[in-house]
Each structure stands twice: as C-alpha cells, then as structure tokens.
Amino acid sequence: MSAGVDFVGWHTWATHRVSRRRTLHALDRRLRRFERQRVWRAFGGAAHAIDLFPPPLPVPRRVSAAHGALTAAQLPATLASYAGYLRHGAAWRAWRRQWDAHPWLAALFRDVGWAPRARWAAPHLWSDHFGRRYRALVRAAADDGLVFVRLGNHVEFLGRQRLLAQRALGLRPTPIARRQYTLTAGFHRVLGPRFVRRALAAGNLVVLAGGARTPPPRVLTPRPLPSAAAPPCTGRGRR
Predict the structure, then answer these.
(1) How many CB atoms lie within 10 A of CB 229?
(2) What distance separates the 2 farthest-apart alpha carbons in the chain?
(3) Distance (Å, rounded) from C-alpha 105 to C-alpha 96?
(4) C-alpha–C-alpha distance, residues 173 and 176, integer Å
(5) CB 171 within 8 A of CB 186
C-alpha cells in the first residue's frame, strides 16, 4: 500500500490521491502543439502574439484529437475538461505549473483557479458594426488590456481605455466632439510600435484592432524573461 492503488486514472493513498503522470504530460503536449501552431514571438521576443480568429489549420488524418491536435475553438473545452478532472485530487500545483509554463494562456483566458474563462467568446467580436466590436473587445480585455484601435491616421483610446492608457503609456487626454465621448487619448499611427512596447513593459495585455472590415484582432501578452527550467510535472503535492 506504500505505493498507493492505481485506479481509474489516479494513484490513491489513504490520505490523498494524485493524477497519473501521463495525464499531465498529455495536457502539456496538447498545449505545446497549440503553441507551435498558433503562437509566435513578436516585438523582438518581448511578447507572445495570437490572432484571435485565425483560419483553421489543416490537420493530417493520421493526427487525431486524441493524439494532441488542438484548434483554437477546442482549447476552452479541453482546459475545462482537464480542470474538471484534476480538481478531484492533489493536482493544484501541477495545474499551476501548466499556466506558468505557457504564459500565453493569459492572452486567451482569465485565470480563475479551476475555472478559466475564455476572454474572447462574445458574439459581438465578429460584428461588422465598429461600435459593437470595439465595446466587446474592451470588455474582453478587462482591466489589464489596452485595445489599440486605429481611427484614420491615429490610434485612440476611448472611455475607460483612456484612463488605463494615461496611466500605462503616459498619454494626455484631448477633448473631442464625438458622440458618446468627450475625451480621448492617442498618438499618430507611426508611433504605434513604441507605445506597444511601452504597454508590454508595463505588464499590460495589448489588442491590435483596426476599424471596420479589417483583419481579425491580434492579441499580445508580455513574454517573461527566460528563467531556470521548471521542475517536471509530477502531480505530487497537495493544495
């Protein structure tokens, strides 16, 4: 009994149980495959970049979901499935190590313990109406995200985004005569890369969005500096 009982995916002792290592490795393998397909480094390696609505990637027939193939649409359900399974044992540290090993997850999900919520699930994100699309992006970006929206030759921050831009980017408010808004903060579009780097350095998530009938938004999240290799995911340790 000192080695525990291996039953229905868990190693079980009298006081606790831990998940099989192969379950944790399967989750890590799927996330790494998604990272190779959808995530890339931007701004000299300072950020992870992800297109919010990329076209579907062709998946070879010999590679099935059971072997780790994962699309953007499947990722929320996959994480929810693993979280629902792992939360029934002593796997909290192993779950947190997955988030630490894949920091780009913060660009797609709000980290709420065992129940991560997808940021970009609102239907208005696909709307052709600029106002609805912009408001949906701002709500999804929440309090830690800056939506860089291009209006003509300038990038502007409106509403509560203006307050965040003033703090993170050092911009000053400017009066405007536009419906629903009386103040804005912004800069000329040629200065965009400079202010994106400044936002990433401040630890903010960045969404690059144009006006109506533009390519899908692109989300950037700060990429942490390289550090010592993380210990392997063993699933051991209790919450």
Answers:
(1) 7
(2) 75
(3) 12
(4) 10
(5) yes
Alpha-helical segments (H) within 155-191: 160-169
Residue 112 contacts residue 79 (beta carbons within 8 Å): no
Mean pLDDT, the chain, rounded, equals 80
Taking residues 35-54, report their average pLDDT.
86
Chain centre distance of CA 74: 14
Round to whole Å and give the CA distance between 25 and 19.
11
Which of 100, 97, 96, 50 lies closest to 75 in space, CA to CA? 50
Q: Which of 50, 32, 35, 16 is nearest to 235 (CA)?
A: 16
pLDDT value for 236: 47
What is the pLDDT, as a whole number, of residue 31?
Answer: 92
CB 166 within 8 A of CB 156: no
Q: What distances in angstroms separate CA 143 from CA 80, 138, 164, 229, one per listed residue?
A: 24, 9, 8, 31
